[in-house]
């Protein structure tokens, strides 16, 4: 059976030589910059193909380039994907982030027009197109037309403005007019997208207004269209036409009388950003746009934890890729656990979806093998992760948000999306408790400790967020010490170990926290203090242990070990007692 072969529309650029060659060829060059983990964007290719057919000629060329391969593109690594760059005569003229068909087509059309005029009028034609550059933070700057060598630094002087066009205005066909007004006013559109907000998200994004049913109803009645606009203060200093425009004036331009009915403008002044909502909205609508912490006033961004689930099919097929992607987007994995859910557990987790047509398929997916539960942390983790996931329905994700993770990591012939994320911080807490329930471990401060050392270790334990559910000071008998370290019977240090552990009182504690066993072992550090000093100088053994034998602290190695030794020291204590904290 022969498959129809599609004509290759983009040239592949994979080294500096090819890059220079592509830049210097005549006409407009549109480059789709991608990263290895996701590959070139298929949706963008389709748009390019359409443009080539409609207005393409020799003046329109397309290329794909991997951000890692070309120095000039390296600032795009791990950032907004896909990104399309538009070059003519080696100069960067425009940037479009995300798959935005209408904007890509419009930009191509406008710039092909410029190329045609250049060809017809030769040197008589002076195009009104500004040259841009990419700085280290993946922001474009405008090269001053009068002095091509002066770079304007957006980090020091730039301003973002997030414009959210509400559903009724989107439905009323206002988007194009608003975009045009913003562009005419001298703003550049850094990113834009359209998506439907569900009620949970409206609550998280607009806490204070979420109590108004009318507001929630209007915001969820259709897609909202969001734009991030940027401009530069230096341009203002140079008294260019942008001088007089403030964000408020922009809002007036956009919708002079009734603007609050249509748009909500949010000032993202990088130097004096003070509205918490800004970072939350930005995190959700543009999760891949990296407004770095020094540009996005650090104090407003809250470090949060959220639950991510990688469903079994994806985990089996592309575990490394999805973990790398999560890391590339700036998340830390605070805890992780592979678990195979029973039918009952999966149904309990998704009980709110019981009765829907997709429920049986969802439960089937969730129980088809081990899944990976992750506790992800970063600023505004809940909204960032949800923003990256994209639409819940895979077909919709592929069609409307092909760069979203649910589209990128969809599994062939599986209708259920492969990634879960909590919707709100409260739900994240509940979800995390389910997958990472409180664990108990036995911690021991071994004999010969001073009062000062004891207090300092207990302070460190509390600072790390453990609850000390039980504590006692006790001298182990020889028999108990032998039982405690029975796994080491026969080893050359066994007798010394038993002598050491039974020669004076130890502090015995039950520590409780999610992931307590692993986290306490991390705090203790490697068994041998010399090794600890090399690899983890802040751990307790690096700082306080005398030798590999007299290494200050003990911690259970696993759940069974913890249960056995808790029983040995504290007897059969009821579970509720474990949750009592030491005052
Ligand atoms: N090579 C060694 N020489 C001397 N003592 C050792 C040696 N290896 C282990 N020990 C002692 O035996 C204890 C138990 O060893 P194990 O291998 O279980 O290390 P651990 O799990 O890091 O420590 P612990 O069980 O005390 O938390 C160590 O804490 C240390 O006191």
TrEMBL record:
GO terms for molecular function: nucleoside diphosphate kinase activity. The active site is at residues 420, 554. InterPro entries: NDK-like_dom, NDK-like_dom_sf, Nucleoside_diP_kinase, Thioredoxin-like_sf, Thioredoxin_CS, Thioredoxin_domain, TXND_domain-containing. ATP binds at residues 446, 493, 521, 527, 541, 551. Residues 303-437, 438-580 form the Nucleoside diphosphate kinase-like domain. Gene3D superfamilies: Glutaredoxin, Nucleoside diphosphate kinase-like domain. Belongs to the NDK family. This is Nucleoside diphosphate kinase-like domain-containing protein. It comes from Esox lucius (Northern pike).
């Amino acid at each position: 059976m022969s498959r129809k072969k599609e004509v290759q529309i983009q040239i592949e650029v994979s080294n500096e030589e090819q890059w220079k060659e592509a830049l210097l060829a005549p006409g407009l060059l549109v480059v789709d910059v991608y990263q290895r983990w996701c590959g070139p964007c298929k949706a963008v290719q389709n748009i390019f193909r359409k443009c080539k057919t409609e207005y393409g000629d020799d003046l329109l060329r397309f290329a794909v380039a991997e951000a890692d391969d070309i120095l000039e593109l390296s600032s795009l690594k791990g950032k907004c994907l896909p990104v399309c760059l538009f070059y003519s005569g080696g100069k960067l003229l425009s940037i479009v982030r995300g798959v935005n068909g209408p904007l890509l087509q419009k930009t191509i059309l406008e710039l092909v027009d410029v190329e045609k005029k250049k060809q017809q009028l030769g040197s008589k034609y002076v195009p009104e197109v500004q040259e841009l550059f990419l700085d280290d933070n993946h922001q474009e700057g405008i090269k001053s037309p009068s002095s091509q060598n002066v770079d304007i630094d957006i980090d020091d002087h730039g301003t973002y403005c997030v414009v959210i066009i509400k559903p009724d205005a989107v439905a009323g066909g206002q988007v194009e007019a608003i975009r045009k007004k913003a562009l005419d006013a001298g703003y550049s559109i850094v990113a834009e997208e359209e998506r439907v907000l569900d009620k949970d998200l409206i609550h998280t994004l607009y806490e204070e207004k979420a109590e108004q049913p009318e507001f929630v109803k209007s915001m969820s009645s259709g897609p909202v269209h969001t734009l991030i606009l940027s401009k530069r203060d230096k341009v203002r200093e140079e008294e260019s036409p942008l001088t007089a425009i403030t964000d408020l004036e922009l809002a007036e331009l956009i919708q002079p009388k009734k603007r609050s009915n249509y748009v909500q403008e949010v000032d993202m002044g990088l130097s004096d950003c003070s509205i918490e909502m800004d970072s939350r909205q930005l995190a959700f609508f543009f999760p891949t746009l990296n407004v770095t912490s020094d540009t996005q006033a650090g104090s407003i961004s809250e470090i949060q934890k959220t639950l991510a689930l990688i469903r079994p099919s994806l985990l089996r097929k592309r575990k490394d890729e999805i973990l790398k992607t999560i890391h590339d987007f700036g998340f830390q994995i605070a805890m992780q656990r592979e678990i195979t859910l029973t039918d009952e557990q999966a149904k309990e987790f998704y009980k709110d979806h019981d009765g829907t047509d997709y429920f049986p398929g969802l439960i089937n997916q969730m129980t088809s093998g081990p899944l990976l539960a992750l506790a992800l942390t970063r600023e505004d983790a809940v909204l960032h992760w949800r923003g990256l996931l994209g639409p819940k329905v895979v077909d919709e994700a592929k069609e409307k948000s092909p760069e979203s993770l649910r589209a990128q990591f969809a599994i062939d012939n599986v209708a259920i999306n492969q990634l879960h994320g909590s919707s709100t911080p409260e739900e994240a807490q509940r979800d995390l408790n389910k997958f990472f329930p409180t664990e108990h471990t036995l911690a021991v401060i071994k004999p010969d400790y001073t009062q000062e050392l004891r207090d300092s270790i207990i302070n460190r334990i509390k600072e790390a967020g453990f609850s000390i559910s039980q504590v006692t000071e006790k001298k182990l008998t020889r028999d108990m010490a032998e039982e405690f370290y029975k796994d080491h019977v026969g080893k050359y240090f066994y007798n010394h170990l038993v002598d050491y552990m039974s020669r004076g009182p130890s502090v015995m504690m039950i520590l409780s926290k999610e992931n307590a066993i692993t986290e306490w072992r991390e705090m203790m550090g490697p068994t041998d203090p010399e090794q600890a000093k090399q690899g983890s100088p802040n751990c307790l053994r690096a700082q306080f242990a005398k030798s590999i034998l007299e290494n200050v602290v003990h911690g259970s190695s696993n759940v069974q070990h913890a249960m056995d030794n808790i029983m040995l020291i504290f007897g059969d204590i009821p579970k509720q007692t474990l949750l009592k904290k030491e005052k």
